[in-house]
Structures are given as C-alpha cells and as structure tokens.
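TA notes. Do not distribute before section.
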Amino acid sequence: MSNSTGIGQTALVAIDVQNDFCPGGALAVEHGHEVVEPINAMMPLFDVRVLTQDWHPVDHSSFASNHAGADPFSKVEMEYGPQVLWPSHCVQGTDGASFHSGLRTDLAGLIVRKGYRSAIDSYSAFMENDKSTTTGLAGYLRELDVRTVYFAGLATDFCVAWSAMDAVRNGFASRVILDASRAIDLDGSLDAAMASMRDTGVEFVESSEILAGTTE
C-alpha cells in the first residue's frame, strides 16, 4: 500500500499470531487460526510489516499459576492497575510462543517481543501495561515515515485494541482490520474494546477493502 501522495508510508502490524492463541493452544482464541490467510494475503501490499510476539518468562506476574489460589481469568490489582490473570501462555522458547506455522514471517521487517519483563504485562505493541515502558515501535515507524498503521491478529479486544489505541496516542492514523482479527470476548470485553477504540479515533476496515485497493 505505497502512498503516492507524499504523506508517508503505511504499516501492517500483525499482533500475536502465535500457537498458544490458536485452537489447541494454552490461551486459544476461537477461530484464531483464521487470521493467518488474510494477513498473509495483505502483507505484500504494505510498505512496512511488523509482527508482535508475546514472550513471557515462566514467572510472569500475569499468570494465574504464579498467584496462590488464583483462578485463570480472575483479576488482581497490580502497581500499574487491574490485571487479568491468564493461563500460562507464550512462555519463552516454547512451541506455544512460536508463530503459527502458516504465517509468512519471512515478509516481516521487524518482530517486536513484548511481555518479557516478569513484573509487567504488555498488551500493546507500543507500550507495556504500566503506560511508561515503551517497546520502541513508535520510533521505528516514525523513522520509516509511517503515518498510517493497520492492525490485525489476536486478540481484537486486548492486544489488538490496546495497540490500535496507542497508535493514535502516538500520532498515527490507526485502523483495525476486523475480519483479520479474532476476540476472546471475556465478560463483554469485545464490546467495551470496540467502544474504546471508536472513542479514541481508531477506524475499522475489512481485508477485502485493502486487497481491492479501496482504502486510502
């Protein structure tokens, strides 16, 4: 999606298309594997392609197993705010942390690993959940003169949404490709995330629009 107007390039950021978020994984998103085909089809059309990868140590504070008596999907209060306690997932070096085997990782110019600090969870591709620890992605995109960032992957209501909203906060035009994303929808989290994204200024598109060249 090269931009001929001279206002910068476009980027596709594919969020956490990893085995543990796909069917059979430790934190499987329903139909999560279905994002692979549209993401692969779109990637060659973008100037800049980025993949993110959850990359947790075994002692990560967001794992329910590291909190005595805590159930998965319960919530606790961390120093940086409320935190969902997840099943252990995407542990560094495991097959669950690997990208889905069908994903075209060879087309990516950058892989951003996040969540590797034990004490802080990291949903966003730009910022960890303490809202102060950055990943460096914003600077990378600015250096490449990216102005518009498209997001797809897993999961719509957590890492995709947080990334898309942080893109707006960092000065980028931000668009979520809805049919190339899938949600966990934990206690209404999808509706809440969609409302928050709209309020933040995130726009929504379909992969068919991108493949047809009808987006700007």
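Switch to the second chain here.
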Amino acid sequence: MAPSPQLGLIAPDFTLPGGVLGGENFERRDYTLAGARGRCVVLAFYPGDNTAVCTKQLCSYSSGLEAFEELDAEVWGISPQGVDSHESFARTHGLRMPLLADTDRETARAYGVAAPGIGVRRAVFLIGPDGVLRWKHVALLGATFQSAAKLTEQLSGIKNA
C-alpha cells in the first residue's frame, strides 16, 4: 500500500466519473478535485455500495449535507464500483452527494487507501479550499466510520484557521 498524502501539502488531483441524485434524475459527469478549488471537499473512500457499514456511513453524510453546505463543503463518496452501481445505491438509499467510480483504484492508490483483499480502506480526507490536505482518518478495520458531526467539527476548524 502506498503512503497516504501528507497533511499540509496539496492533495493529489484526480478526475473520476460519477453522478449525483437530483430529484428523479441521476446526473452523471466527471469530477475533478482541482475543479472544486475555493470550497472544502470531504473525500469519503468506502469499500462498497450496498454493504452494511458503507450504507450507514453514506446515509449519515447524506442526511447531514446541510451542515456540510453551511461550511461551504462538498462531500464526495469514492469506491471501486462503477457509476451504474452508484446510481442504484443512491436511488435505493436516497443519497444526495456525488458518488465517484474509482474502478481501477488509481485514486485510492494515490491516497494510500488501496488494500489487497478488501479493495479500498474506509478513509476520509478533508481538503481545504486551497487544495491542501488539512485532516485525514484512515481506518485500520472498516467496521466504523467518522461521524458527520466529527467531520463538520474538523471543517469548522479549517474554515476558521
């Protein structure tokens, strides 16, 4: 497994296909980290669509999106499944944040979270509006996740720094 990016340095850029559920439509497009400059971005790497812990994690982030938006932050879920799987996952659970498809795990490798056997470690990276990595948490075991409250607390500190 490659090392995780260093805090205080520019986060590795990437472009991934994905989509976001907006009403009845699942709007597909490419997402580029550099294109989000000016806003904070929460990168939530998760092992798989429609798995118990991932579903609980992403549902909690989706239901708390207003708190992220108040801090001028976007939340992007990233996993190895394709965009069709993400669309089904988003529709089934009413997920309102973009879900990105890292099918070749290149982005997971760049962030040091690609893992043999499970594919991707559960991890969260908070990127400041300047593109700098400000906070991260990489789970050793994927059975738990960082709460939306913990993430918004960290984001609040970034915005006030």
